[in-house]
Amino acid sequence: MRPLRICIIGSGNVAWALAPAFTSEPDIELTAICSPTPGHAAALADSLSPRPQAVTEIASLPRDADVYLIAVKDDRVASVALEATGLFPATALWLHTSGSVPASALAPAGGGYGVLYPLQTFSKGVQVNLRELPVFIEADSADGLATARRLALAISPIIHEADSDLRRRMHVAAVFACNFTNYFWTVADNILREHPGLDLSVLHPLLKETLRKAIEEGPEGNQTGPARRGDRGVIETHRKLLGDTPESKLYGEVSEAIINHYNKK
């Protein structure tokens, strides 16, 4: 079986995380990287061995790839597919890496289409153990699904099939678990930094224990704090401390959500 030839469209965090996994896999040949920003595709290509071609236009991508993997912002996926219309063989498989965009957004590209969604937060320059993360795949045909699975195996052995609805639900859950939580940490850090010498580091033991319990025991039974106890006196004291700020409003809304949730039990 010959290597699977792929091209990556995009040079952001996801592309930087996945490209090394592909170049280290003998069953995959990463032939090109495309980014409209001058120098971005070249920078990613230069970091890889063997080095793929770097281009700035979709029309400049090789026409003989088996898979064109679109790793761009969600609101750019459909426009990339439209830009590729009529340029590539119908035998090509188009995949995107988004958790919230339907696979059908790639239909205008003219080939098979699907999704390869690695459920993880990526930051450029930060190494993530890809072998531990789940990858969710979808395709419009059995052959396309087999190809998506073959590509996913270069990333992780944990592979699940997921249609657009299930993938959107997982993405929403991930926003609550990761993105919203990180914002709360930012709020906490800002509150602490109002006092000289304090920052989020004083909460690190608390954060670690909270995460441990959530992973090992589940979060439902481990909710603590004034809202869980229904202690409205403490809640109002905290809100007065925060003053007339968006953080005070947020504190009140989240507290009410927790109180209402556990009162239903």
Rounded to an integer in angstroms, the radius of gyration calculated over CA atoms is 22 Å
Query: SS-based structural class?
Result: alpha/beta
Name the CATH superfamily classification of the largest domain.
Answer: NAD(P)-binding Rossmann-like Domain
H/E element sequence: EHEHEEHEEEHEHHHHH
Helix content: 40-55%
Envelope shape: elongated
CATH architecture term of the largest domain: 3-Layer(aba) Sandwich
User: Class of the largest domain in CATH?
Assistant: Alpha Beta
Q: Proportion of β residues?
A: 5-15%
Number of strands: 8
The tally of structural domains comes to 2
Number of helical regions: 9
What kind of sheet is the major sheet? Answer: 8 strands, mixed
Q: Could you tell me how far the N terminus lies from the C terminus, measured between alpha carbons in angstroms?
A: 56 Å
Mean pLDDT comes to: 96
Uncertain parts: none
CATH topology assignment of the largest domain: Rossmann fold
The strand order across the widest sheet is: 3-2-1-4-5-6-7-8
Question: What does it look like?
Answer:
With 265 residues, the protein is of the alpha/beta class. It folds into two domains: 159 residues, NAD(P)-binding Rossmann-like Domain (Rossmann fold); 97 residues, ProC-like, C-terminal domain (N-(1-d-carboxylethyl)-l-norvaline Dehydrogenase, domain 2, Orthogonal Bundle). Helices cover 42% and strands 15% of the residues. It contains nine helices and eight strands. The chain has an eight-stranded mixed beta sheet, with helices on both faces. The longest helix is centred in the last third of the chain and has 30 residues. It is elongated. The model has no long low-confidence stretch (mean pLDDT 96).
